[in-house]
Design brief:
This protein is an alpha/beta fold. The chain has 3 domains: 5-49, no CATH class; 61-163 and 295-321, 3-Layer(aba) Sandwich (Rossmann fold), CATH 3.40.50; 165-293, Rossmann fold (3-Layer(aba) Sandwich), CATH 3.40.50.2300. Helices cover 43% and strands 16% of the residues. It is built from 12 helices and 12 strands. The chain has a 6-stranded parallel β-sheet, sandwiched between helices. A 6-stranded mixed β-sheet has the order 7-6-8-9-10-12, with helices on both faces. The N and C termini lie far apart (76 Å). The mean pLDDT is 91.
Length: 335
């Protein structure tokens, strides 16, 4: 049987309100002996506060909603883990929702989290979310902070933490050019994705700055998943390229698999640079050179913004984090 405040109040011969105030560390006009007696009773009977009841009184549920598009992607999984760890330290619980990158699921989960009274929302929007901000507005109007990360769309009126996808991609292609490569292919992310658009724009800008003609035949669409890296890799390696910029590491792993299928060696036959610098990129037979998205920095900035929001500071902050290239063994110098 669950131990209630009423049960403890009867044992302590005090009112329910008085017992509640004692257990919540509030000022109450009873002796220190009686306070300690109530605290000891709570421990003895393993009293667990009813979070719903507490929420009704405080208007806070000590919960944070977290919506991500793909829990199988280690990038999102690591961020989710970091946010949960930080939240737990501060006495908050995280309700995690996975949308499989579907807008309908995103909206469904956002409404569910709102109905559960979460104190703030952290979300990486689905790729197709470009014009659907109603749920974000609903949270903000209810004085509940919203942080969007990794993907951001113009018109969103909330805080954000994103990586500098554009300049990171410029640096990736400039790195290949500095190694002597001129025939550089690209496997993009889903083109209606915020990050994918900026990464392809960065790829093209680096080529134009180096006075290298853009060959649209060397640009093939992916979807940020292993399979598209594999299938598009098979097609791209039929063309005249010496290097490829793969717009995320998961697709780069697929490209590696395609190279193995075609009996091509990395980097002897084709050089590869990725984007994300995931944990497994250093563990490949040929460790992958990649543009590093600093997962710890992303997580820390989200946590810092949450700290402000949960204390009532709902000012909108937009954080853009720089990238750097983690150099390994997958790019050959052909100068």
């Amino acid at each position: 049987m669950a131990v209630t405040l009423k049960f403890l109040s009867e044992k302590a011969n005090l009112s329910i309100t008085t017992v509640s105030l004692i257990l919540n560390g509030k000022n109450v006009r009873v002796s220190e002996v009686k306070k300690q007696h109530v605290i000891q009773l709570a421990k003895e009977y393993n009293y667990i506060p009813n979070s719903l009841a507490v929420g009704l009184v405080t208007k806070k549920t000590k919960t944070i909603g977290l919506i991500i598009p793909d829990i199988s992607n280690i990038f999102f999984a690591e961020i989710a883990k970091n946010i949960e760890q930080e939240a737990n330290i501060k006495g908050y619980s995280v309700i995690l929702c996975n949308t499989n990158d579907k807008l309908s699921e995103e909206i469904k989960y956002a409404n569910l989290l709102f109905s559960k009274g979460v104190d703030a929302l952290v979300v990486c929007p689905a790729i197709e979310s470009a014009d659907n901000f109603e749920y974000i507005n609903k949270f903000m109007e209810a004085s509940k902070g919203v942080i969007v990360f990794d993907r951001f769309f113009s018109g969103m009126q909330c805080s954000s933490v994103i990586t500098d996808n554009f300049n990171g991609s410029i640096e990736a292609v400039q790195y290949l050019i500095a190694k002597g490569h001129r025939k550089i292919g690209c496997i993009t992310g889903p083109i209606n994705s915020y990050s994918a658009r900026l990464r392809i724009e960065g790829y093209k800008k680096a080529l134009l700055d180096a006075k290298i003609a853009i060959n649209e035949e060397l640009i093939v669409p992916g979807d940020y998943k292993f399979e598209s890296g594999y299938h598009q890799g098979l097609e791209l390696m039929k063309k005249d390229i010496t290097a490829v910029f793969v717009c995320n590491d998961l697709m780069a792993y697929g490209f590696y698999h395609a190279a193995k299928k075609l009996k091509k060696k990395i980097p002897q036959d084709v050089s590869v640079i990725g984007f994300d610098d995931l944990l497994f990129s250093s563990m490949l037979d040929v460790p992958l050179t990649s543009v590093k998205q600093n997962i710890d920095a992303i997580s820390n900035n989200i946590s810092n913004l949450l700290d402000k929001m949960l204390t009532g500071d709902l000012k909108i902050n937009n954080v853009v984090l720089p990238t750097l290239i983690t150099e390994r063994s997958s790019v050959k110098n052909i100068v």
